[in-house]
Specification:
This protein has 330 residues and is an alpha/beta fold. It is built from 14 helices and eleven strands.
Length: 330
């Protein structure tokens, strides 16, 4: 009976994920390489999970999000975060209408399907926290009125890992609200040659809509149905609890390296992201490889390391790799 239901779900997945290939093909007309980033952007859309992208300038982060919006016929807005930015610059404010003699709302750039906040750590905490309600509740309060944000709604934030002068560290409460944190890498030599040729020959392609938000809504319903076995669920819990109590999970060496472990949001994010990863691979069930594929992106910003770990130049990715190496796979 279970095998039959999994087969039915897999058939549903394969019927609904065909638009993904069309979107990826359209995006590859503009973007060279960066398969990992494009893959994670789709996972974010399928799970309503906000994404934090870390990487040096020039790696096509902004271009990728803009191209994704165009391919899915969605509204895209970009906000450049600067030290003098105000919360009203993001959310909107009340404007006095002289003709009517009353105040009326002027909605900010956050009212879009895909919102790219460039260099989010350039603005102070008051501005960063202005995104909290919109990210968590999918709504914005302007004056005494609350307005629903468009659906789908996704915040994609970027930050530069090198330049720290004049930046403000993201509050823990906000960074935990990003489902994934991506480390965007440099392209390969052949990819960079392709980028150079494409961008200097004047034949840039404008992406066209090949799908629409309705495809995303239908796919989200199918992603929710994807089967996750009890052993996989326990594997997720073991991984998350090993970040909090490493000694009790056979990893005593990590106890002095992890200050705070992952929050319960990590368990939820691992489950939902793994389902979306299985959906992209055409499967109606989650396997341990799905957890490992998204595990680094889900956990790397949720672990707080001790001074000892920082002194020894131990990264969160090394600790996560240690977890995957030692926690028993079902």
């Amino acid at each position: 009976m279970m095998e039959e239901s999994i087969k039915v779900i897999t058939e549903k997945v394969q019927a609904h994920n065909q638009f993904i290939d069309l979107v990826m093909m359209e995006m590859r007309k503009v973007i060279v390489g960066q398969r990992y980033m494009l893959d994670r952007l789709m996972i974010g859309l399928l799970t309503e999970g906000h994404i934090l992208m870390e990487g040096v300038p020039g790696l096509a982060k902004t271009l990728s999000v803009n191209t994704l919006a165009a391919s899915l016929d969605m509204e895209f807005k970009r906000i450049q975060f600067t030290p003098d930015l105000l919360p009203a610059d993001i959310l909107g404010t009340m404007i006095y209408n002289q003709k009517e003699g009353s105040f009326e709302p002027k909605k900010g750039p956050v009212f879009a399907n895909l919102v790219l906040t460039d260099e989010i750590n350039r603005a102070p905490a008051k501005v960063q926290s202005a995104l909290l309600e919109s990210m968590q509740e999918k709504q914005v309060t302007i004056g005494d009125q609350t307005y629903k944000l468009p659906n789908p709604f996704l915040v994609l934030a970027t930050q530069n890992p090198i330049e720290q002068e004049g930046t403000y560290r993201l509050p823990e409460a906000q960074i935990d609200r990003f489902m994934l944190k991506l480390n965007v890498k440099y392209p390969t030599k052949s990819e960079e040659r392709n980028i150079m040729d494409r961008m200097t020959e004047g034949n840039r392609v404008q992406p066209k809509p090949v799908a629409n938000p309705e495809d995303i809504f239908k796919s989200r319903a199918v992603v929710d149905e994807i089967y996750v076995d009890e052993r996989i669920r326990n594997y997720i819990i073991d991984l998350v609890f090993a970040t909090r109590e490493p000694g009790e999970h056979g990893l005593p060496d990590l106890a002095d390296l992890i200050d705070y472990g992952a929050s319960p949001r990590a368990s939820i994010a691992l489950m939902t992201a793994a389902k979306a990863h299985a959906f992209l691979r055409g499967r109606g069930y989650v396997i341990p490889e799905d957890i490992k594929a998204v595990g680094f992106d889900v956990l790397r910003h949720r672990l707080s390391l001790t001074f000892e770990a920082e002194a020894e130049n131990i990264s969160t990715d090394e600790i996560i790799q240690n977890l995957f190496d030692h926690i028993e796979v079902p």
